[in-house]
Design brief:
The protein is an alpha+beta fold and 183 residues long. 19% of the residues lie in helices and 22% in strands. It has helices spanning 30-38, 81-87, 125-131, 136-139, 152-159, and strands spanning 10-13, 27-28, 42-54, 57-67, 101-105, 120-124.
């Protein structure tokens, strides 16, 4: 059975052969990978058995590529809902739940709290509702860890704790999860 083209993304590595990102995993659709090959921007490290063809050309689809030029990682992580969840490992900082996640201002905005790394934590909807617009000491709800800006390395390391559902066998030598990989 031949793989569909859509099921052949390329794992993208930096020039040092580390993934650009673990979570979300740095993947490019097959079209972007092929374009980068033709523009001589990447090296092909591994290929799928699947080929693409034109009248005068055929090529195996790349499954792992590395950039020819090193891309300097961003030093300061962007403040996004996703990155807050990733910093907090997708767990409510009040009760530890992993469902119905929202984010909560430790010092509520109605009381002068800002939307910053140091004042926002992951909270499940029930805890967020229970805390409401009150200060943590008024309701005895304190975050398990004091909120702070994470480093990019911390976010990458946390991301490694959440492997994607699909990992191709050719990616094995470049990723460091202790799980079963798909053929």
């Amino acid at each position: 059975m031949s793989l569909s083209l859509e099921s052949c993304p390329a794992l993208v590595l930096n020039a040092d052969h580390r993934p650009l990102s673990y979570f979300p995993l740095s993947l490019w659709p097959w079209q972007e990978a092929v374009k980068a090959v033709f523009l001589d921007r990447v090296n092909i490290l591994s290929e799928y058995d699947r080929e693409i063809r034109s009248p005068g050309f055929s090529m195996k689809l790349p499954s792992v590529i590395s950039l020819k030029r090193y891309v300097q990682p961003v030093r300061r992580p962007a403040f996004t809902r996703f990155n807050v969840f990733l910093r907090d490992r997708f767990q409510c900082q009040y009760c530890g739940a992993a469902d119905e996640l929202t984010f909560d201002h430790v010092v509520p905005r109605s009381r002068g709290g800002c939307t910053t790394w140091e004042n926002v934590v992951t909270a499940c909807a029930p805890c967020n509702l229970r805390k409401g617009g009150r200060l943590p000491h008024k309701v005895q709800m304190h975050p398990r860890k004091a909120p702070r800006m994470p480093t990019m390395n911390e976010l990458q390391e946390n991301g490694r704790g959440f492997p994607p559902r699909h990992l191709h066998e050719t990616w094995r030598d470049f990723l460091y999860w202790d799980i079963e990989l798909e053929p």
